[in-house]
Model the fold of this input.
Amino acid sequence: MTEAYLVATTKPWNIEQYERFVSRAAGEWHLVEDPRALTPELIERIKPRYVFFPHWSWKVPPEVFGAAECILFHMTDLPFGRGGSPLQNLIATGATQTVVSAVRMTGEIDAGPIYLKQPLALDGSAGNIFRRLSVIVFDMIGKIIASHPQPVPQTGVPTYFKRRTPEQSVLPDAATARDLYNHIRMLDADTYPPAFLDVGRWRLEFCDAELGSDSVKAKVMIRVRNQSGQDG
Done:
């Protein structure tokens, strides 16, 4: 009997990697790109062996993760760094390396048992990191469906990250050139609010940062802010 699998993701780099992966993977594969489509009824109809969540930012109802073996991929060495915005929080602390954890979804955020872990370098822009992450995640998916590892409970004292808000994307005043470079690059990815600076009625948005000895070179998009003070 052919196994069915479901992948839930909204990020374009994951969707591209999914298409590459399923073109050579065995089994019956399904993709969910809209959080509203991830319903108990869908799980009942597909009856997936696993549901994989690369880069998923929405709460999954118990009726879903209780009905199927749901696996999320978190960009920290769990139980370190549970919670939101792991890439930005890691770079903000000066980290240059991390670990991707494949973890079973439970009722507690990022607290489930671990299937496997793989290393990930944190150099380059957020977009480049996310693309490398996607390759690693689908490699991990391949290993999971091939060997069906039993997840192992997390060990150690948990630490937590807080999800960042768009307002935190503003360039910091008290910062070194390296701090500014890291701030720009950690937000430089599609679907993310870019690093910005407001000057009067204008919003300056930064990307493609390059670090010099005591300076940062970056591309700037200048937009008119709307009346609420956000870019429009």
